[in-house]
Write a structure and sequence with these properties.
The chain is of the alpha/beta class. It contains six helices and ten strands, in the order αββαβαβαββββββαα. Strand 9 and strand 10 form a beta hairpin. The protein is elongated and about 60 Å long.
Length: 215
């Protein structure tokens, strides 16, 4: 697998295309168990993210690891945080400003965030499992950069995180080019299916279903 410093795929060059393809198409085309927890939702309407992952694990109710991770992050990375799904405000406007100054481009967190209005004003993409006001301690340095599991996916540093209104997925860096190619083919096929449906075709026929429940 290629390293984050020596990636074989330029995300900046195709970011808008990835947003257009969307997580649903990428997921279906990948053939992988790459779904993160469905409890993750955008913190503000329209948030979307394509970035390389920096995995972070922190103790419940403690956000010291997030401060440390921002210091260690490479520009263009997003933090993907296992905060034990605790309903604390691990992240707010201060960490958003710090992250943006360091080139961190987004956050995916199994845990809570707050200052949502300010985060939205900064257009910083955040996906969390809750909006929560409760404060945090700063005693546990956690773990930064080690592989972590979230939902069906194992996330490693440099994997590609894609998040939008449908959900969040993580695609291994060395598989991403193939997934993008398959996603383009799938999108073209679906465009043709939509044309045929609008002309009166049946989805049962298009997808080759048997009417007795077999395919």
């Amino acid at each position: 697998m290629s390293s984050p410093q020596d990636s074989r795929y330029d995300l900046d060059a195709i970011r808008e295309e990835i947003f257009t393809l969307g997580t649903a198409t990428l997921y279906e085309a990948s053939g992988m168990d790459c779904l993160l927890s469905p409890a993750l939702r955008p913190a503000w309407p329209g948030a979307a993210l394509v970035a390389r992952a920096l995995p972070v694990t922190t103790a419940a109710g403690d956000n010291l690891a997030l401060h440390l991770a921002i210091e260690q992050a490479r520009p263009g990375e997003a933090l993907v945080v296992d905060a034990q799904q605790a309903d604390h405000g691990y992240w707010g406007e201060v960490l958003t400003a710090f992250a943006q100054a360091r080139g961190v481009v987004g956050l995916v967190i199994l845990g809570g965030v707050r200052d949502v209005r300010d985060i939205a004003a900064r257009r910083f993409p955040v996906f969390s499992t809750s909006i929560a006001l409760a404060g945090t301690s700063k005693d546990d340095a956690g773990e930064i950069g080690a592989p972590m599991r979230c939902g069906h996916a194992v996330i490693r540093r440099g994997d590609v995180i894609v998040a939008d209104h449908d959900g969040v997925i993580s695609i291994p860096d060395d598989a991403f080019a193939t997934v993008v190619s398959r996603s383009r083919e799938r999108a073209e096929q679906e465009t043709e299916y939509m044309r045929q449906l609008e002309d009166g075709a049946s989805s049962v026929t298009l997808y080759g279903f048997d009417r007795d429940g077999r395919r």
